[in-house]
Design a protein that fits this description.
Blueprint (H helix, E strand, L loop, with lengths): L5 H4 L10 H6 L10 H8 L9 H5 L6 H9 L3 H11 L3 H7 L21 H14 L15 E5 L3 H12 L3 E5 L8 H4 L8 H14 L2 E3 L6 H9 L3 E4 L5 E2 L12 E3 H13 L13 E5 L3 H12 L4 E5 L11 H9 L3 E3 L2 E7 L6 E12 L5 E5 L5 E4 L2 E4 L3 E2 L4 H5 L26 E3 L2 H4 L4 H19 L1
Parallel strand pairs: 1-2, 1-4, 2-3, 4-16, 6-14, 7-8, 7-14, 8-9
Antiparallel strand pairs: 5-15, 10-11, 11-12, 11-13
The protein binds flavin-adenine dinucleotide and iron/sulfur cluster (SF4).
Flavin-adenine dinucleotide binds next to helix 9, helix 10, helix 13, helix 14 and helix 17.
Length: 463
């Protein structure tokens, strides 16, 4: 029987990770599964506080203490039903959310007892229920007459589709890629999220009635065709224009951008006969940036058997924007970190041979409130590298067909929401939008929240 004091006797236990030599030699997920008993014990640590801060900090406001209790009782199918009331893809969030900055960061037990392993339990609930044959159900049996088109099969578009179809609204999702998932499939590497997880979701969405039209780039002509047969359209196109930074000589051979590097590697792993990879085997690799994308690049280079891998970041470790867990994994896997280091110039004759850098110290805060890195005069030096990955993040690049539809764009190039009558509605009333294309490069959980909430607004709009 629960006493609510289990957290004193039962310590937080994260799942074991595979041995380092196994991790570094293949791209599979790094965690070993936990047993039902482990999960029951870990979920019993929840205090069931009256005002659960974890729920408020979770962008989806998941009913966390309630599904922790069901997991503790071994009621996995009920727990999965409850998880899916707020989250279309709990097993994905359980794997890739930066929990330390979200739900677990807000857990009351953080005051000296270590947070409940919320993400791991969320993943375990859904994985277990799916293995038992559980599937998300439609809330209504019959479909209505209205039809919604969704452009972009990333987490925003997929969550919108899942929420519409379960409420009896027919929908079709268009994407230029051959597979669904957006960055879940083509950006985030297998060691964080195996592709079979996303493929399983495709199967379940199709079974619910979602239609996918893949390998289809939407342009002005195509959108006119889609517009004619749709009562509303949701745009979830992401943001893909990489930020270049002010570094001289990035046009040299051996310098690549993060996303093409990760995408090529994923495509190669998905189909080695049909894709070529950017291979860093035996190279000295440097990756510029301190976010999740940079961590994915350094850990990909480790698995490609690079000779050395260095992450170069202009602020200190405390100021790194990426998930603490992912930084720790990169360090365990042998990545060197050069903090307080600003890259200045790519050197070499045609191909990169070294990178000129300068040490920094943190100065006054900038407009965003973060301390600005300042160069330390006389601290310049060259680091020998022959491959360089630029992972500074992404900015908006809304395609022309969106502008042609009179959807307004903000000064920063993101899609501007009108929000007058319906949330997530753009300046063209028939067009709704969500995900990275309205807030800039962010997190999957935000995209899922936008897709979910936009679906509810679209239903009100189409009546
Ligand atoms: C390397 C990397 C690692 C990341 N790691 C994490 C992480 O660990 N945790 C986390 O929460 N988030 C992570 N993110 C962020 C997360 O992946 C994104 O915030 C999220 O995928 C955004 O979802 P979205 O649906 O808005 O866009 P996307 O996932 O970008 O999907 C947009 C879709 O639109 C399609 N599309 C675009 N234009 C067209 C067109 N004209 N016609 C047809 N289709 C089109 C694209 O093909 C794509 O499938 C990471 C991002 C990157 C790049
Ligand atoms: S969706 Fe993300 S933030 Fe919310 S409970 Fe799950 S892991 Fe935590």
């Amino acid at each position: 029987m629960s006493t609510n004091f289990e957290f004193i006797d039962i310590k937080r236990i994260d799942p074991d990770t595979k041995p380092l030599e196994v991790r570094k030699a293949n791209f599979g997920e790094i965690y070993e599964p936990q047993t039902h008993d482990d999960i029951a014990a870990q979920s019993s640590r929840c205090l069931d506080c009256g005002n659960p801060y974890c729920e408020w900090k979770c962008p989806l406001h998941n009913f966390i203490p309630d599904w922790l209790k069901l997991a503790n009782e071994g009621k996995y199918e009920e727990a999965a039903d409850l998880c899916h009331q707020t989250n279309s893809f709990p097993e994905i969030c359980g794997r890739i959310c930066p929990q330390d900055k979200l739900c677990e960061g807000a857990c009351t037990l953080n005051t000296g007892f270590e947070a409940v392993t919320i993400g791991q339990i969320e993943k375990h609930i859904t994985d277990t229920a799916i293995n038992m044959g559980w599937k998300p159900k439609r809330y209504v049996e019959k479909f209505g007459k209205k039809h919604v088109s969704i452009i972009g099969a990333g987490p925003a578009g997929l969550a919108c589709a899942e929420n519409l179809i379960r409420r009896g609204v027919k929908c079709t999702v268009y994407d230029k890629n051959p597979e669904i998932g957006g960055l879940l499939t083509y950006g985030i590497p297998e060691f964080k999220l195996e592709k079979s997880i996303v493929l399983k979701r495709r199967e379940m969405l199709e079974e619910l009635g979602v239609k996918f039209v893949l390998n289809t780039e939407v342009d002005t002509k195509k959108v006119a065709e889609i517009d004619k047969k749709s009562d509303a359209i949701f745009l979830g196109l992401g943001t893909y224009e990489s930020i270049k930074g002010k570094i001289e000589g990035t046009n040299k051979t051996g310098v690549v951008e993060a996303l093409p590097y990760l995408i090529k590697n994923t495509e190669y792993l998905m189909d080695p006969d049909d894709a070529e990879k950017i291979d860093f085997k035996d190279h000295r690799v440097a990756v510029l940036g301190g976010g999740d994308t940079a961590m994915d690049c350094v850990r990909t280079a480790v698995r490609q058997q690079a000779k050395s891998v260095t992450c170069i970041y202009r602020r200190d470790q405390e100021n790194m924007p990426g998930s603490i867990r992912e930084i720790k994994h990169a360090m365990e896997e042998g990545v060197d970190f050069l903090f307080n280091t600003q890259p200045l110039k790519v050197e070499g004759n045609g191909s990169i041979t070294s990178l000129k850098v300068c040490e920094t110290k943190l100065g006054k805060p900038d407009a965003s409130g973060r301390q600005r890195p300042e160069l330390i005069e006389g601290s310049e030096k060259a680091i020998e590298v022959d491959k360089l990955v630029i992972a500074f993040g992404y900015q908006a690049d809304v395609p022309d067909f969106v502008l042609d539809k009179n959807v307004k764009i903000s000064d920063t190039g993101l899609v501007e929401l009108n929000n007058n009558k319906f949330n997530y509605q753009t300046s063209n009333p028939k067009y709704f939008a969500g995900g990275d294309m309205i807030i800039g490069s962010s997190l999957a959980v935000h995209a899922i929240a936008h897709g979910r909430d936009a679906a509810k607004e679209i239903i009100k709009f189409i009546g």
